[in-house]
Amino acid sequence: xxxxxxxxxxxxxxxxxxxxxVDGASFAVPEGRIVGLVGESGCGKTTAVRAIMxxxxxxxxxxxxxxxxxxxxxxxxxxxPLLWRDIAYVPQSAMSSLDPVYTVGAQIVEVLTKRGxxxxxxxxxxxxxxxxxxxxxxxxxxxxxxxxxxxxxxxxAIAMALALEPSLLLADEPVTALDVxxxxxxxxxxxALQQRLKLSMVLVTHDISVVAYLCDEVVVMYAGQVxxxxxxxxxxxxxxxxxxxxxxxxxxxxxxxxxxxxxxxxSPPDLADPPPGCRFTPRCPFALAACSTRPAAIGSDRAGAxxxxxxxxxxxxxxxxxxxxxxxxxxxxxxxxxxxx
Amino acid sequence: xxxxxxxxxxAAPRRGRGQSILPVLRRMAAMPLKxxxxxxxxxxxxxxxxxxxxxxxxxxxxxLEILFTKAGKxxxxxxxxxxxxxxxxxxxxxxxxxxxxxxxxxxxxGLSAAIIVATxxxxxxxxxxxxxxxxxxxxxxxxxMALSLPFLPFVIVLTGFxxxxxxxxxxxxxxxxxxxxxxxxxxxxxxxxxxAYVEAARVTGASHxxxxxxxxxxxxxxxxxxxxxxxxxxAIITEASVNFLGFGDPTSVSWGMMLQDAFTSQALSRGQxxxxxxxxxxxxLVVVAGFFISxxxxxxxxxxxRGR
Amino acid sequence: xxxxxxxxxxxxxxxxxxxLGEVVRRARPVVRALDGVSFEVGAGDAVAIVGESGCGKTTLGRLMLxxxxxxxxxISFDGAALGGLKGPALREFRRQAQLVFQNPFDALNPRFxxxxxxxxxxxxxxxxxxEHADRIAAAFRRVHLPDLDRYLDKYPHQLSxxxxxxVVLARALVLAPRFLVxxxxxxxxxxxxxxxxxxxxREVRDAMGLTAIYISxxxxxxxxxxxxxxxxxxxxxxxxxPxxxxxxxxxxxxxxxxxxAVPVxxxxxxxxxxxxxxxxxxxREPPSGCRFRDRCPHAFARxxxxxxxxxxxxxxxxxxxHLEIA
Lengths: 341, 308, 326
Ligand SMILES: Nc1ncnc2c1ncn2[C@@H]1O[C@H](COP(=O)(O)OP(=O)(O)OP(=O)(O)O)[C@@H](O)[C@H]1O
Ligand SMILES: Nc1ncnc2c1ncn2[C@@H]1O[C@H](COP(=O)(O)OP(=O)(O)O)[C@@H](O)[C@H]1O
Ligand code: SF4
Ligand code: SF4
Ligand SMILES: [Mg+2]
Ligand SMILES: [Mg+2]
Hints:
Chain A has 341 residues and is an alpha/beta fold. Chain A contains eleven helices and 13 strands. In chain B, helix 2 (36-53) crosses helix 11, helix 4 packs parallel to helix 11 (273-301) and helix 6 (151-162) crosses helix 7 (166-193).
């Protein structure tokens, strides 16, 4: 495991109380794999990634848990030297993270010279190489960010993140808001890079089809917690947590014959005051009375090099049974909590 | 086909129109409480406004009356005393009374210039930004021309032509200052015009006037205030300079005129500080207060939407 | 069924700022956002417009709502040319044609309460204030926000994206329009919310008998809403046909790429490689002949010389390509 996150807790201090944006999340990234971090917006994906990078917002702080990178525990105090060289980050809205007053090339060169102590000439050559790597023509290095399309800016941000040959890349929503063709091109670029450079990668997204296309493993978050994780094929093919089953149904599938999308009724809980017990209880069609009192623990089995398929549901034992019900749209129309199958 | 109105539909309480401006005003009113500089500025204005209102009570003596001592001599060049708190001028006028009454002309000049600048600048900025094209080109060319005029010489020449009336000074200042606010407001309107909600208003058939004044104007109102507050300071300084340079109306009572009188009668060499220091301080206070307030409103201007 | 909207040979060029060289040469460069687009939309139809970013989808939608005027060509609504609409006729058109926006966070005036936002069309249409409350309540029920008292006095920033998009839809429906253009109505929304909004759009359309244009870049979403799809590339229509046909058997090489690019939420699906490379060319200088030729895997000599006409290959199915595709 190149990265292990264990019981991570991140709190934001706000006027409305403490927001527990990440509340006991654990997951691990095996060497050379792409792990997808999925969940609805606001479930704490960005927060988790920023916490790993040690770049939380002003009002955020780590309230508990451990982050271990290559066997060494890291926190705000000792991540700085690792940034760019060992762990790199493509922020959400990378589009706007490029500085509009410098050319894209100058910004990459700056990372190379300031952070990587390359000489000016070597840095320029390397910048051209990086552009080539992400599929941009090197004569676009002289362009300003506004002269790039959204997809090109995203590629440039990836190129910059890869400048110092990190071993772990954290990419936050790298293809959201891009059209399908550009999205696909960028995903293909990421896959090629991962294979060529033996990168390990965490890909944050709310789109499970992106995970299905690119990732080896997936971590599903809900309301600040990890509720299911494991190999993509298993988690998306045979989901064990009702929330994952719901997400799977809510997704359009171009090739399926089903012409219905089934939304999960309701919305995620307020993280300043989350419900006790399983946080999915108010929206879960399979909830039992016990669900609202007893939080379900997630297993942490390891299977060989990767992670095993685990889920945090009290009714995990009945998963196969529940899954057949979950395929029926009528199941999800039941709005009452504590409905039994 | 909207459903036929049902009886028993939850009746929504009536909501008046033109409400959108209220939250803006409320926020603008609340701003000085948050920004200490703006608060100081506002306090200064309130104090001067009180002085202007109560000038006759605070200084019952006519500021232009020539006073005599008990001995029957002209009370010229007296130092501060119980009777004349700041002393008298070389012509035997009460300096304290001049200072107090000068507040009136200062505020009148400042406020009228501010109102003209804000109104003209806002309307021109809105129209130019919203309609664009030739209208915009013509208005902005005029603004460029006005901006290229040298400030004080223009005021002096204009008042020379039209007469040294205070209202002409105000007019001259307004002519010079509207383009600044018009330009900034125009560029703001250019970006607001592209907002989806403005387009939404168009799709639902809103008239140009409604889009301009209901959907766009409330967003730039605070900006108008910023420029109005700046104009107050400029107008007062200009009026003082014109008077000080001797191009003003000699029968007016103003801080600038006081400085000019003090200067020409060599109060400085006589060490009659009580004559020229107080009006100087007053001018500085009013001008600085204007800038403090404008600074505060600039911060309110871009309300970062609370919440998400 | 008779056409409600017909778009004939529409060209829309936007002037762009000139470089110094262009000023000297007196060139007047333009972005060719649309270059000769014709189609008809029957009353009650739901038509999707799909294509990559910048291919002119939004521009086409805005033209159909008379928010911009075409450079050449004409658009008519219910038999009347939009170009000539003025005064009361324009007001009537504005009551009948509405728009749903991509970004619900920007589509509502941040200074308006939800009530005022939804009342805006009623005010503009001159509907008596006494009727507003009832009409708004009805529109809210349509979009499944029945407990409207919870929302009416709120400001947009106090609502979630899904709720906002429902409010935006309620505003579009409050005048009971006949024609609705939805420009990427779910692309800014969270996945779990998307399904609900899509289902709602379909339900509303069926219930109100709306004619709808649905703009998107994602065929997977379009498939839930529209029977017919127009595929656009660089300001032209390259394929126009039944959505299921285009999804199952795309004919134009670009449509094939678009179908192949849609990600599938099933990891076992074969990952077919994307059949095209590169980016959309600059809309200021589109390639001669077929605009798709520099990215097309099948391009041949003729493609550079002649632009392929949009020709019928089956009933209700048109394709613009020189290849024998039918
Ligand atoms: N007002 C304008 N001035 C200049 N160019 C414009 C204007 N509006 C659109 N364009 C250009 O016209 C072309 C088509 O734009 P349009 O917004 O219709 O694309 P789109 O298909 O909706 O793209 P997206 O999927 O990104 O929304 C683009 O090249 C765009 O830059
Ligand atoms: N700077 C902040 N201050 C307060 N709350 C925040 C801040 N940043 C994020 N949050 C809250 O933390 C939660 C998780 O946010 P985020 O990590 O951005 O989620 P995601 O990336 O999954 O959409 C949300 O409830 C969000 O509103
Ligand atoms: S069954 Fe209970 S524990 Fe499992 S997801 Fe539903 S509410 Fe949570
Ligand atoms: S006309 Fe030629 S270049 Fe265009 S799509 Fe057909 S084969 Fe490709
Ligand atoms: Mg995020
Ligand atoms: Mg668009």
